[in-house]
Design goal:
By secondary structure, the chain is of the alpha/beta class. The protein has helices at about 15-20, 70-80, 95-100, 105-125, 140-145, 150-155, 170-175, 190-195, 215-235, and strands at about 35, 40, 55-60, 85, 130-135, 155-165, 205-210. Strands 4-5-3-6-7 form a five-stranded parallel β-sheet, sandwiched between helices. It starts with 14 loop residues before the first helix and ends with a helix. It binds adenosine-5'-triphosphate (ATP) and D-gluconic acid. Adenosine-5'-triphosphate binds near residues 135 and 217. Pfam families: AAA_18 (PF13238).
């Protein structure tokens, strides 16, 4: 059910090395993280050697249909050697049938999907990964808030959103040009109808203008992810 991300990868102890090795980087075997069990840390204490416990990261790539979530998320996951969860694959058949028929989902249609994505992300970290990247439209603030519950139960878990920002007419063109996808161009307007773009108080959100070529969007996204992780580590060591 999960996306095509690799099952193991290097730690992020040396971010500049990660930057320089892209793409591609070799897969490195990792030991499972013994301090995470079913998404809940069993030992939050500072290790005996005095170093701080390692941070774990969930990155959600968000935005309306056609904004480039899958494109960006796959690139991040491959670059960082993190698992990739394709949110579209977690919709139950009833949701896919609705969207295929041109009927927008309701809040009620989305709750179980959102919690499944949250649980699956934590499950990936539980397997010993430093981070996980997933796609999720997360169109409303309350949908983002469902995912924001994840760190309540998992100290040292950092949750981040990347919001891919583009005007409706541009996404309409991209969806029109795309073939073999259940989400038709007739659905794009309904996505913008309910969209609540992240506001400035949502400090866990990075917004990226995606009305430019995909290569440039992916490069910016990776740079901002690496910088954020670097800042998190630096703040912890203060
Ligand atoms: N920055 C970009 N410039 C031009 N085309 C792009 C860009 N990013 C993605 N695309 C193209 O736009 C289409 C939609 O991209 P993608 O499938 O990644 O979006 P998505 O947000 O995952 O869509 P959905 O939520 O509907 O699955 C694809 O054909 C993709 O190749
Ligand atoms: O919340 C939603 O309405 C859905 O997640 C949609 O956004 C689609 O799954 C996605 O865009 C695929 O095209």
């Amino acid at each position: 059910m999960n996306g095509s991300g690799p099952s193991s990868g290097p730690s992020l102890s040396n971010l500049s090395a990660v930057r320089q090795s892209l793409p591609p980087s070799p897969k490195v075997a990792r030991l499972p993280n013994p301090s995470l069990t079913n998404g809940v840390r069993t030992n939050g204490a500072t290790p005996a050697n005095g170093s701080l416990e390692k941070e774990h990261h969930i990155w959600l790539v968000t935005g309306p249909a056609g904004c480039g979530k899958s494109t960006v998320a796959k690139y991040l996951a491959n670059s960082l050697h993190w698992p990739y969860i394709e949110g579209d694959e977690y919709h139950p058949k009833a949701n896919v049938d609705k969207m295929s028929a041109g009927i927008p989902l309701t809040d009620a249609d989305r709750w179980d999907w959102l919690t499944a994505l949250r649980d699956s992300s934590i499950h990936e970290l539980d397997q010993g990964h430093d981070g996980v990247v997933l796609t999720c439209s997360a169109l409303k603030r309350k949908y983002r808030d469902v995912i924001r519950v994840a760190p309540y139960f998992t100290p040292n878990l950092r949750l981040h959103f990347i919001y891919l920002d583009a005007p409706e007419d541009l996404l309409l063109q991209r969806v029109l040009a795309r073939k073999n996808h259940y989400m038709g161009a007739n659905m794009v307007h309904s996505q913008f109808d309910i969209l609540e773009p992240p506001t400035s108080d949502e400090v866990d959100v990075i917004s990226i203008d995606v009305s430019r070529p995909a290569d440039s969007v992916m490069a910016e996204a990776l740079d901002r992810v690496l910088n954020t992780i670097h800042e998190t580590k630096a703040n912890l060591q203060k």
